[in-house]
């Protein structure tokens, strides 16, 4: 897969939510890194939130006017600035596979935007569904970095586009998982969520040194150091996991929550399906979850 670009801008997402148990730019070309699901990251959370209006408009439209041309009616403001083009590059890299690229001519200059991961190729021809928004959101969140440092990461999850390749075998340190909702209404906060993986819970080492978005922020309880909502520890290495399942073969989490799962919420399915819950308890289950790994 083509590499992810080092971005300085951002977007917002939407994850599938249920009441219960249901499921540097050189001339006209963007700089591209290397291969497969391995991505570099330097995406700013602040710039992500600053582009929510453009993100929502983009999600409601298809990406292309035809197979190779960007839908300028949908991308408008994004492509008019360098930061916006960087953001759109990242979006395209998450959504489309490596054998597809889009072109856009803006002010007489032609820009190319390369596919990379291929999480939602249908976005070429149709607006994003709730499931598609969830995958794009999780992908964007997973690439946010607190500092101005680009770190290679391996992205894994219950999506065929995230199947591991031989290049990823050396990425053995589990950072955590990302999910939530970027495409929220402008009068509501971004619903970005991260849980801490087993590697991150054991301390700072290897690629984790410059990855902080699954670490709780002591100065801001309930948030990570990147400003995401901190759900807790992802898996059963903790007494209070936030995700219901872990795929041993794929090494990724499934069905993650906004906070630790208690026994009642996890097992009382009838109660869960009927939404008979206290109003202050967040019972949402997130299906579009991306688990990240770094080098030791």
Radius of gyration from CA coordinates:
18 Å
Q: In one word, what is the shape?
A: globular
Alpha carbon gap, first and last residue = 22 Å
How would you state the average pLDDT, rounded? 80
Question: How is the main sheet built?
Answer: 6 strands, mixed
- State which percent range the strand residues make up: 15-25%
Number of helices: 8
Structure report:
By secondary structure, this protein is an alpha+beta fold. The strands form 3 sheets. It has a 6-stranded mixed sheet. The chain has one domain. The protein contains 8 helices and 10 strands.
Lay out the secondary structure.
Layout lengths: L37 E2 L5 H6 L1 H8 L12 H4 L6 H14 L5 E6 L2 E6 L15 H13 L10 E4 L16 E9 L9 E6 L1 H4 L27 E5 L9 E5 L4 E5 L6 H5 L1 H5 L16 E5 L2
Parallel strand pairs: 6-7
Antiparallel strand pairs: 1-4, 2-3, 4-10, 5-6, 5-10, 8-9
Helix pairs in contact: 4-5
């Amino acid at each position: 897969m083509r590499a992810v670009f080092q971005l300085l801008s951002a977007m917002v997402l939407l994850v599938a939510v249920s009441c219960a148990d249901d499921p540097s730019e050189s001339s006209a070309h963007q700089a591209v890194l290397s291969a497969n699901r391995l991505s570099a990251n330097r995406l700013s959370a602040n710039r992500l939130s600053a582009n929510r209006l453009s993100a929502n408009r983009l999600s409601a439209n298809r990406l292309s006017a035809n197979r190779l041309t960007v839908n300028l009616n949908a991308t408008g403001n994004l492509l008019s600035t360098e930061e916006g083009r960087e953001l759109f590059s990242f979006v395209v890299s998450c959504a489309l596979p490596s054998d597809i690229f889009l072109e856009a001519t803006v002010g007489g200059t032609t820009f190319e935007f390369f596919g990379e991961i291929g999480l939602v190729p249908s976005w070429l021809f149709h607006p994003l569904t709730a499931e598609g928004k969830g995958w794009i959101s999780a992908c964007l969140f997973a690439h946010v970095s607190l500092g101005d440092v680009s770190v290679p990461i391996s992205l894994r999850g219950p999506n065929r586009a995230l199947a591991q390749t031989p290049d990823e075998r050396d990425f053995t340190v589990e950072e955590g998982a990302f999910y939530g909702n970027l495409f929220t209404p402008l009068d509501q906060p971004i619903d970005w969520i991260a849980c801490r993986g087993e590697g991150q819970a054991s301390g700072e080492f290897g690629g984790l040194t410059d990855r902080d978005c699954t670490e709780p922020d002591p100065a801001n309880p309930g948030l990570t150091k990147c400003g995401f909502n901190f759900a807790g520890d992802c898996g059963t290495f903790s007494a209070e996991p936030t995700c219901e399942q872990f795929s041993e073969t794929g090494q990724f989490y499934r069905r993650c929550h906004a906070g630790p799962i208690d026994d009642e919420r996890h097992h009382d399915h009838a109660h869960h399906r009927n939404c008979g819950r206290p109003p202050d308890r967040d019972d949402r289950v997130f299906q579009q979850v991306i688990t990240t790994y770094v080098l030791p």
